[in-house]
Design a protein that fits this description.
Layout lengths: L8 H6 L1 H8 L4 H29 L5 H34 L3
C-alpha cells in the first residue's frame, strides 16, 4: 500500500526558485486553488468509498479506512486555511486607502 502526498503543489511552494519561474506566467495561484479543491473532493470521495466498503463487508481493512479519513480531514483543513488566507487578503485590500 502506498500513501500519496496531499498535493504536489506544496513542494513547489517550499521551493522559491520553482515558484518564481512559474509565477511569471501568473497562473500559479489559480492552479494551487484548483488543485487544492480537486484534491479535497477526491480524498472525500475516497474516504466515503472506503467507509462504505467496510460497512458493507466487502473490505475488512480498518487501517485503510482510518488513513483515508485522516487524508480527507487534512485536505479539508488545507482547503479551509487557503480560503481563510484569501478572505483575509481580500479584506485587507478592501480596507486600503488609495
Amino acid at each position: 500500500m502506498s500513501i500519496n502526498p496531499i498535493s504536489s503543489n506544496i513542494s513547489s511552494l517550499l521551493n522559491p526558485e520553482a515558484t518564481k519561474a512559474v509565477s511569471d506566467t501568473g497562473s500559479v495561484f489559480s492552479d494551487i486553488l484548483t488543485d487544492t479543491f480537486n484534491n479535497a473532493e477526491a480524498t472525500d470521495k475516497a474516504d466515503k468509498g472506503s467507509a462504505l466498503e467496510l460497512l458493507s463487508g466487502t473490505s475488512d481493512d480498518m487501517s485503510a479506512v482510518l488513513i483515508d479519513a485522516e487524508k480527507a480531514e487534512i485536505a479539508l483543513s488545507l482547503t479551509l486555511q487557503i480560503r481563510n488566507k484569501v478572505v483575509d487578503a481580500y479584506n485587507e485590500i478592501m480596507t486600503m486607502q488609495v
